[in-house]
């Protein structure tokens, strides 16, 4: 086997430097440390002109926070960067009109407060992740247009990182330039061009929900009477309203509506993602809600619009042996259940575990003419990516399918009792928020080795003690009085972004 030293370098291209792309880069940096004798040259390409996140909030659940810690991004767990409310509950649900607490979620197995649901300004989380990625490896104004994969023979002379067994993958950018490497991780979000190259028929649909979001200085809501200290989710006639403190003295308000409900009214129609919205339209939507929500909407200084899109689960996440996807590019669930940031982090960790496992059983040819050396080429990449896919795709497919089913089966309660019943019987999402990516990877690995021990980890978690409890327990824990007033109302949508 003849190889030169360059075979020890694996050039990894990452399309997209959002949460998924940055956390993947951090994970691969860790992999380089863990596998002496192997060098990863990781390069990120993003279409953005500057490195910043949209001005919205993001919640990370225990699974994502635990993964941040594994990635070594401890600074994102610090109390000043995000907000965790005093009740130590993941979410508290209030009645739209009375403001009473109807129900709440609670943690099943999250004893450490730093792993309990935390709410960030997206820019703060993003910049913390950025601090762990060498700036010179991030290339801006590089909008991916498509991808070309060359097999071993055709790639002779093309020149990737040299570690891919001869084959290469090339990103073609809108500006006419390109970048070539051994493998490609598509982290270019919901409208991924990498995904489109390999699954051109995949489409996205409006979920019937458009989100209206704002982040602003918390001083603006300081004087609102009866404002809950904890993050709060109000469920109302047709829409919901979410509000929370964030880290670094920021605050967020989030509303939503279905454009189909409002023909002829302001706000009807499609918006571009992150387009500036009309704050008066937002205030009008909540004008007859309880005084706390109304005051929050009135205090909101500006809003931006986020039409929510989702698409069917993909049948495969591995393309041409050397390309895979992470984050929203891989699982097109939209903003459902505020899960995407945490899922992206877990994707990065599963990819790290898979590559580490395959690398550790595939030593690199060190040019010492020892025939027992093995190369790390397209077969090994494919094996690692398949392990990764088997760890992540079933889990995220369950979410995407539930999002699409929720939309199809959306029932609008016709009485206040039905609304309360719906609030109390909302789906238990612990299988998502406390998912253990490492345990799932271990089972996939054992299965690969023929032990057939993989059980449905998600199902097991759902069978655990119920995490939903009613107003009596909620008020006991939080000392929040329930209101006596009950009005007729309707609501919908178990799909939420917070
Ligand atoms: C309205 C809304 C609210 C949400 N709220 C939450 C929440 O509270 N909690 C939560 O966990 N998740 C939330 N999510 C989901 C979460 O934001 C994403 O799932 C998460 O950020 C995953 O990020 P990503 O890196 O995969 O994609 P993105 O964050 O979209 O990043 C993709 C990156 O790729 C770049 N890019 C895109 N196209 C190209 C291209 N052609 N070429 C090069 N670069 C490109 C973009 O500039 C961007 O930097 C929400 C989503 C929505 C829609």
From TrEMBL:
<keyword id="KW-0812">Transmembrane</keyword>
<keyword id="KW-0503">Monooxygenase</keyword>
<dbReference type="GO" id="GO:0004497">
    <property type="term" value="F:monooxygenase activity"/>
</dbReference>
<dbReference type="InterPro" id="IPR036188">
    <property type="entry name" value="FAD/NAD-bd_sf"/>
</dbReference>
<protein>
    <recommendedName>
        <fullName>FAD-binding domain-containing protein</fullName>
    </recommendedName>
</protein>
<keyword id="KW-0285">Flavoprotein</keyword>
<dbReference type="InterPro" id="IPR002938">
    <property type="entry name" value="FAD-bd"/>
</dbReference>
<keyword id="KW-0472">Membrane</keyword>
<feature type="domain" description="FAD-binding">
    <location>
        <begin position="320"/>
        <end position="360"/>
    </location>
</feature>
<keyword id="KW-0560">Oxidoreductase</keyword>
<dbReference type="InterPro" id="IPR050493">
    <property type="entry name" value="FAD-dep_Monooxygenase_BioMet"/>
</dbReference>
<keyword id="KW-1133">Transmembrane helix</keyword>
<keyword id="KW-0274">FAD</keyword>
<comment type="similarity">
    <text>Belongs to the paxM FAD-dependent monooxygenase family.</text>
</comment>
<feature type="transmembrane region" description="Helical">
    <location>
        <begin position="12"/>
        <end position="32"/>
    </location>
</feature>
<dbReference type="GO" id="GO:0071949">
    <property type="term" value="F:FAD binding"/>
</dbReference>
<dbReference type="Pfam" id="PF01494">
    <property type="entry name" value="FAD_binding_3"/>
</dbReference>
């Amino acid at each position: 086997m003849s190889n030169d030293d360059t075979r020890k370098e694996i050039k990894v291209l990452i399309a997209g430097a959002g949460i998924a792309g940055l956390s993947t880069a951090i994970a691969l940096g860790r992999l380089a440390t863990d596998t002496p004798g192997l060098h990863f040259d990781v390069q990120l390409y993003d279409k953005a002109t500057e490195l910043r996140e949209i001005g919205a909030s993001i919640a990370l659940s225990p699974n994502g926070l635990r993964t941040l810690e594994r990635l070594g991004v401890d600074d994102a767990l610090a109390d000043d960067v995000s907000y965790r409310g005093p009740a130590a509950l993941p979410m508290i649900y209030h009645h739209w009109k009375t403001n009473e607490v109807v129900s709440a979620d609670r943690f099943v197995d999250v004893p450490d407060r730093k792993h309990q649901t935390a709410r960030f300004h997206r820019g703060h989380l993003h910049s913390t992740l950025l601090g762990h990625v060498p700036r010179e490896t991030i290339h801006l104004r590089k909008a991916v247009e498509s991808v070309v994969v060359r097999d071993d023979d055709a790639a002779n002379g093309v020149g990737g990182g040299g570690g891919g067994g001869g084959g290469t993958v090339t990103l073609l950018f809108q500006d006419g330039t390109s970048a070539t490497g051994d493998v490609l991780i598509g982290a270019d979000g919901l409208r991924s061009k990498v995904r489109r190259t390999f699954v051109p028929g995949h489409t996205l649909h409006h979920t019937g929900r458009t989100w209206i979001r704002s982040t602003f200085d918390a001083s603006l809501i300081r004087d609102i009477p009866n404002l809950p200290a904890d993050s709060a989710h109000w469920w109302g006639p047709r829409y919901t309203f979410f509000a929370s403190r964030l880290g670094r003295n920021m605050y967020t308000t989030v509303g939503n509506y279905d454009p189909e409900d409002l023909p002829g009214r302001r706000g009807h129609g499609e918006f571009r993602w992150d387009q500036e919205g009309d704050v008066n339209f937002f205030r009008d939507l909540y004008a007859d809600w309880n005084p706390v929500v109304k005051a929050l909407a009135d205090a909101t200084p500006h809003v931006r619009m986020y039409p929510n899109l989702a698409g069917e689960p993909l049948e495969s996440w591995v393309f041409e042996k050397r390309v895979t996807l992470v984050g929203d590019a891989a699982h097109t669930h939209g903003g459902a259940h505020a899960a995407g940031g945490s899922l992206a982090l877990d994707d990065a960790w599963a990819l790290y575990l898979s590559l580490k496992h395959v690398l550790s059983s595939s030593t690199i040819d060190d040019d010492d003419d020892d025939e027992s050396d093995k190369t790390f080429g397209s077969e090994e990449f494919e094996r690692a990516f398949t392990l990764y896919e088997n760890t992540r795709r079933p889990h995220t497919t369950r979410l995407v399918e539930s999002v699409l089913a929720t939309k199809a089966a959306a029932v609008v309660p016709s009485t206040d009792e039905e609304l309360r019943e719906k609030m109390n019987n909302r789906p238990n999402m612990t299988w998502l928020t406390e998912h253990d990516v490492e345990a799932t990877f271990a089972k996939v690995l054992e299965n690969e080795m023929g032990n057939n021990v993989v059980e449905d980890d998600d199902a097991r978690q759902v069978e655990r003690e119920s995490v939903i409890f009613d107003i009596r327990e909620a008020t006991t824990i939080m000392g929040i009085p329930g209101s006596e007033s009950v009005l007729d109302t309707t609501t919908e949508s178990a799909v939420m972004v917070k």
